[in-house]
Amino acid sequence: MDKLASCFVQHGAPSQSFKPYAPQRSTTQISPGRSRSVPVVRCAAAHAATVTAPKVTSVDVANVGSGSFDFERYLSATAKAVHDALDAALQGLRCPESLSESMRYSVLAGGKRLRPALAIAACELVGGPAAAATPVACAVEMIHTSSLIHDDMPCMDNDALRRGRPSNHVAFGEPTALLAGDALLALAFEHVARGCAAAGVPADRALRAVVELGSAAGVGGVAAGQVADMEGEGSAPVGLAALEYIHVHKTARLVEAAAASGAVVGGGGDAEVEHVRRYAHFLGLLLQVVDDVLDVTGTSEQLGKTAGKDAAAGKATYPRLLGLEGARAYAGELLAKAEAELDGFDAARAAPLRHLARFVAYRQH
């Protein structure tokens, strides 16, 4: 734990420092001419009806039913488009068949595709076309999948189940799984460079996206968070600050990079990109808090992965440090903070991101 504490003190978070239980509504105006009126709409009735919701401080959950935006249809269409693009990107790879099959096994296994949807929605938020963000969306999913393959391996979390079926290393063996994760990480950056050029994205925007994604995958994000997570196991109790460091890096930073990169390739200005970044930072932490709650309250069948594994490994989690109700209350604060960052944008363009935040807050798996 001394190493983890030292890392936290020396390096801190990759962007702004956000403290739990201190919600503060943004007052920064993006553009005086933009409307701040945003309809409150339902993510998905099934989720609100069957899931114990976090305590929300600024959104009246009882009224989350008005409006006409069909988020389920939007998410389904985006997921299919990204899946098809990923399928195409992973065809005809010049490598041993076992490596190609291992890569495709995990990337095309399904999942909610939240990070790709976030990249595309952020691009559209600032007025860019979805096609400009599709290479970024695919790259984000490749990076995310790479991290999951490595995370499941015996040297990390040693989890045999992922998305309802055997983890990659169980299906293909540890050496092939390790190399599949490495190959996906490398392919992600190649895909951004080639795909952005083909979509007509200016080179300077594509380069900024590469920098964002590289930082999020490496020492500024997933790699740093994973090491801190492992070093915190079985040592002195991990406090909230150290836990936040782990999840800002391991989870939130890639979510943040997906959104920021989408806004960048879409042509967003600096102020717009910063609001999108902050929205995604809170969304990434919300994703982790809800994951921690579901690890306690869900089953392996519901989650598609081993339930209760964090508690069994003695890991620090938000329910463990805050209690189950405290974790749910914190999720509500993060949801309110994320939505506040969208207030200065056009309401119709912001609707997918607003729904996405609520979908994450009320999901069951």
TrEMBL record:
<dbReference type="InterPro" id="IPR008949">
    <property type="entry name" value="Isoprenoid_synthase_dom_sf"/>
</dbReference>
<protein>
    <recommendedName>
        <fullName>Geranylgeranyl pyrophosphate synthase</fullName>
    </recommendedName>
</protein>
<dbReference type="GO" id="GO:0004659">
    <property type="term" value="F:prenyltransferase activity"/>
</dbReference>
<dbReference type="Pfam" id="PF00348">
    <property type="entry name" value="polyprenyl_synt"/>
</dbReference>
<dbReference type="InterPro" id="IPR000092">
    <property type="entry name" value="Polyprenyl_synt"/>
</dbReference>
<dbReference type="InterPro" id="IPR053378">
    <property type="entry name" value="Prenyl_diphosphate_synthase"/>
</dbReference>
<keyword id="KW-0460">Magnesium</keyword>
<comment type="pathway">
    <text>Isoprenoid biosynthesis.</text>
</comment>
<comment type="similarity">
    <text>Belongs to the FPP/GGPP synthase family.</text>
</comment>
<keyword id="KW-0414">Isoprene biosynthesis</keyword>
<dbReference type="InterPro" id="IPR033749">
    <property type="entry name" value="Polyprenyl_synt_CS"/>
</dbReference>
<dbReference type="GO" id="GO:0005737">
    <property type="term" value="C:cytoplasm"/>
</dbReference>
<keyword id="KW-0808">Transferase</keyword>
<dbReference type="GO" id="GO:0008299">
    <property type="term" value="P:isoprenoid biosynthetic process"/>
</dbReference>
<dbReference type="GO" id="GO:0046872">
    <property type="term" value="F:metal ion binding"/>
</dbReference>
<keyword id="KW-0479">Metal-binding</keyword>
